[in-house]
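Q: Here's a chain of 323 amino acids. Please give me its 3D structure as tokens.
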Amino acid sequence: MKKLLALVLALCLLCATAAAAAEEFHVGILQLVQHDALDAATKGFMDKLTELLAADGDTVVFDYQNAQGDSATCSVIATGFVNNNYDLIMANATPALQACVSATGDIPLVGTSVTDYATALADPEMDITVGTGINVTGASDGVDGMLYAKMVMELVPGAKAVNVVYCSAEANSVVQYEAFKAAMAEIAPDVAVNNYTFADSNDIQAVVTGAAEGVDAIYIPTDNTAASNMTIVSNILQPAGIPVICGEENMMAAGGLATVSISYTEVGTLAGEQAYKILKGQSEVGATPIAYCSQPVKEYNPEYAEAISFTVPEDYVAYAPAE
């Protein structure tokens, strides 16, 4: 009986020790705006972080907040996360990350859907391949601008004018425009490349209508404001028969012809893996290199192609919605 009692007590002690060792982490998620790409990144992040922590017997409580595309709201949410002293903050999109950086220099920040971290952090000399050196790391949705330039010229080889449409308030979009224009100057110097920018969603219809005049193709980078309003964009450009090359798959699916496709779920998953290592003390946030998705693929939207009577090269993969 004494041996049995001792065994029971030992098991109770073991269970109590295991329970005490389990940790509960609190993570704030600031998403700039709701659209399919950012939603996929957030889900990928939450799923991966939850999975990895659960394998250790740990749990995570998420505080998800959406700023509805408003930078001032981003700042309010970020300040709230800091006041709550969360263990880590995930910032989804460049303006969200910038708001979080302004709010704290101590809490680890992990970004997703940020194209260029050096630009977002206002430090062009930053070597993100070895980490930012501050309380920021993350996963990038960036794709080489040359790939988009080559796609435009492959799809519309006789193009004389290509317009780029994006929100002037989004630093990531400005970077992508400049990279695309530089790439076009290298491979097709005779093609005119002009930018048509809008300040917010109220200007999109007028700006896109202007961009459609006398143009052979339009490129829209991974711009969050544009992504949230692709129905408006498509309603103007599709009837005009204009090939639209989009920055990412979900934008293309909502109203574009083709894209150099990456998975935003993968972007979020990569950020979730980074967050796990930071929370568990396996890596320092400032010494964690920015993560990038696996090799992107050329993809097209069959419905848009049919609507504008466009034949896409055979090496493009047809977009199919996930079931």
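Q: Can you summarize the key feature?
A: The mean pLDDT is 92.
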